[in-house]
Amino acid sequence: MxxxxxxxxxxxxxxxxxxxxxxxEVACPVCQGRVQKLMSTFAVGASHKNPLDGVPDVRPKxxxxx
Length: 66
Description:
The chain has strands spanning about 5-10, 15-20, 35. The chain is an all-beta fold.
């Protein structure tokens, strides 16, 4: 389910709400007024990047001079 950010047109309360549909009817949880959907910011990462890049290798090392 997508998470959308809203602001109330009446009391200006900002809140996030998880909705099942893009056009779901949402009311302000404070005053039950009409709300406006806001443009939310989000982070985008490269999908081809190795998730272990930058993570230190903490595995035990084999002794090479014993």
